Amino acid sequence: MRIRRLPENLINRIAAGEVVERPSSVVKELVENAIDAGAHDIEIVVESGGRVMVRVSDDGCGMSADELEVAVERHATSKLSDEALMDIRTLGFRGEALPSIGAVSRLTVASRPEGAETGFEIRVEGGDVTRPKPCAMARGTRVEVRDLFYATPARLKFLKSERSETMAAQDTVKRLAMAHADVRIAFSSGSARGLDYAANPQTVEGRRARLADVMGREFAENALEIDAERDGVRLSGFAALPTLNRVNSQMQFLFVNGRPVRDKLLYGAVRGAYMDFLARDRHALVALFIQIDPQQVDVNVHPTKAEVRFRDPGLIRGLIVGALKRTLEGAGHRASTTVSDAALDALRPTISGSRAWMHGSGTRGAYDKPRYGSTGFAETAAMFNAPLPENSGQGLQAPGFAELGGESADASAALEEAPEELTIRPLGAARAQLHENYIVAQTVDGVVIVDQHAAHERLVYEGLKQQLDEAGIARQPLLVPEIVELEGDDAARLLDHAHELAKSGLMLDSFGEGAVAVREVPALIAGGDIAGLVRDLAAEVTEMEQALGLKERLDHVLATVACHGSVRSGRRLKPDEMNALLRQMEETPHSGQCNHGRPTYVELKLNDIEKLFGRR
After folding, report:
1. Cα torsion at 563, 565, 570, 572 (round to 10°)?
2. Could you tell me if 294 and 86 are in contact, meaning their C-beta atoms sit under 8 angstroms apart?
3. Residues above pLDDT 90, as percent of the chain
4. 20 to 30 A from 468, CA-CA: which of 48, 92, 367, 542?
5. Does residue 557 contact residue 504 with C-beta atoms inside 8 Å?
6. Tell me: the pLDDT tens digits for 451-492?
7. How many other β-carbons are positioned within 10 Å of the β-carbon of residue 321?
8. CA-to-CA distance for 614 and 165, rounded, in angstroms?
9. How many CB atoms lie within 10 A of CB 248?
10. DSSP letter (8 states) at residue 80
11. Pick from 570, 498, 495, 568: which is nearest to 528 by CA?
């Protein structure tokens, strides 16, 4: 077959296949055009997930009749000056959106610039363009797209359900709204709950308010402000405390010069910054904004402009990792408010269904009283009214309380030995130990429950990291080397990393086939489960080698070492030991969560506790 030129309408449809993947792509292109036009108020309406209609109206600068005719031609734009493809300061620049959309739909564009007596309207149907006609409208632009992909019906088969397409369009609007907090953006659909984000000032609190609208109140309450700069690149935004996390990365929003992007480098940097605080299957919540000289980043990588390429990727990664780690360290022992909220929800009474409260009836007719466990209020009252057995006040100890400070100690022993002035400290004064794992402390206005193993694990880990950074980890030789037998090639694989393990304070040698001899251990974990530690390291070393750099591998080894060297569940602590642990937590960064992202303590305010018992 001879080489030939393709018809213009076919060229436009091919271009549309790159730019217009689904209805949300139309929404993205049109809203970006409105923002570039200086709009302060944008309204988006979709019908049937965008298949039937997408309409975007704005109050931007508008276009004249002559500009309308040029706007629907391919590669026509007002956003690129002097052919400076590496100096792009707008969201769009290719000039392909309107002609590509018009090639596969019935497109109507109406616009009126400032000072014009009337607006003008132009139509494009399957690539065929009509002449502009006068129309009545306010200043700005209104773009209406109907019957999307009617000119390429095969594309319709690849669209998802109406609900899925509507949600995709909503997600696009949310991302653009986060990047441009000073613009009012409204979204409505017949099958989905509408969005209406009010314009906020271009301040830190204005951005926080917009992020709260999009990401939720929980994020706003537990977000730490990020503000850092390095070599002319500025990073701003918010990052949530590690104890507020998700099972996927859908709540990670990244922006470069106001453009929402999905970049592996940026996601990897966020994951690296949170590596010390989250398990591998958990993800942080962040909204990060990078401002960089346009000549230092290439946004012309993908037709949808969702990917970027940095001239110095190492600078960007280092900036993100460093800024996030410093900010998280500044949070100290703070944990997210969702931890206490979840605890209170777990403690609230359940109400049986058959005779439950008659919600909405306005009366208190037949109902079943709230029941705690299997005992209702009536049964509980009868128990309190019953005569107490003789000597009931002597030696009374609640089930699960450890014997503190001696063989016959009870909960009151801790109360006597804990100085009252400690209650003014953030984590309060230790009062008791439950189930030989949970420390109960009293604060001025509430109660703190600490997981002793998780808390000490974090303290040991931070201590090991500090030793490694300052002068190397202190080691303690074992009087008798511990021999650990391993399976398969685990021993050889572990010995391949002997140099890194030595930096972490663990000295081991080969001891025949399938076994290693541990000769020295970090002094902080002396007496811990050495065999269990070695087996865990052997199981994890392959994954670390494939996925992490040297620094990350060392940190991961230290985290595993800390887990095995911390105070174990089931160990009884004396009051002074418990208080010492609380004080050390207050002074140690990141002590609000263990190395796996789980909270180390729960704080319950007295007001909330009183509500549980109907006192408020």
Report:
1. -140
2. yes
3. 35
4. 542
5. yes
6. 998 888 888 888 877 877 777 778 889 888 889 898 768 888
7. 18
8. 46
9. 9
10. -
11. 568
Residue type, 304: T
| CATH 3.40.50.1980 is held by the domain 332-349+399-616 | no
How does strand 309-310 pair with strand 507-510? unpaired
In CATH terms, 8-197 corresponds, of 3.40.50.300, 3.90.1300.10, 3.30.565.10, 3.40.50.720, to 3.30.565.10
Please report the beta strands in 337-472, taking only residues with DSSP state E, as ranges in sequence order: 371-372, 375-376, 429-434, 438-443, 446-451
What's the token pair of residue 552?
């990350």
Of the CA atoms within 13 Å of residue 253, those in its CB half-sphere come to 24
DSSP conformation letters of 553-602: HHHHHHHHHHHHHSPPTT----HHHHHHHHHHHHHSTTTTB-TTS-BSEE
Euclidean distance between CA atoms 308 and 295, whole angstroms: 12
Written as one string, the DSSP assignment of 261-308 is E--HHHHHHHHHHTTTTS-TT-EE-EEEEEE--GGGEE-TTSTT----
Question: What integer pLDDT is reported at residue 145 of this predicted model?
Answer: 95
Question: What is the tens place of the pLDDT at every residue in 381-412?
Answer: 333 333 433 333 333 333 333 333 333 334 44
Torsional class of 221: left (φ above 0), alpha (ψ -120 to 50), beta (otherwise):
alpha
Angle between helices 575-587 and 452-470 (to 10 degrees): 50
The least confident of 42-51, 242-251, 279-288, 362-371 is: 362-371
Specify the pLDDT at position 395. Answer: 34
Is-contact 140 111, C-beta < 8 A? Answer: yes
Domain ranges of the chain: 8-197, 204-331, 332-349+399-616
CB neighbours (10 Å) of residue 390?
7
pLDDT of residue 181: 94
Containing H/E element for 478?
A: strand 475-485
51 within 8 A of 156, measured Cβ to Cβ? yes
- Dig out the tokens for 17 from the structure: 């296949």
- Token reading at 479: 């009087």
Q: Structure tokens of 601?
A: 């303590």
Q: pLDDT digits over 38-81, tens only?
A: 999 999 999 999 999 999 999 999 999 999 998 888 776 665 66
230 forms beta bridges with 233
Alpha helix (H) ranges present in 76-161? 97-103, 153-156
Which DSSP state fits 282?
Answer: -
Q: Which residue has the tokens 């099972």?
A: 247
Which residues make Cβ contacts (< 8 Å) with residue 560, sequence separation at least 6?
Answer: 533, 536, 537, 540
256 contacts: CB under 8 Å, gap ≥ 6: 263, 290, 292, 297, 299, 308
Provide the β-strand partners of residue 227: 236
DSSP 512-545: STTEEEEEEEEGGGTTS-HHHHHHHHHHHHHHHH
* Residue carrying the six token digits 């276009």: 63
Q: Residue 380 is encoded by which pair of tokens?
A: 């509980």
**Is residue 372 packed enough to be buried (19+ CB in 10 Å), middle (13-18) or exposed (0-12)?**
middle
Compute φ and ψ for 582, nearest 5 degrees: -65, -45
Q: Crossing angle, helix 530-547 and helix 550-565, to 10 degrees?
A: 160
Mean pLDDT of the chain: 79
How far apart CA 363 and CA 359 sit, in angstroms, is: 8
By residue count, the chain amounts to 616
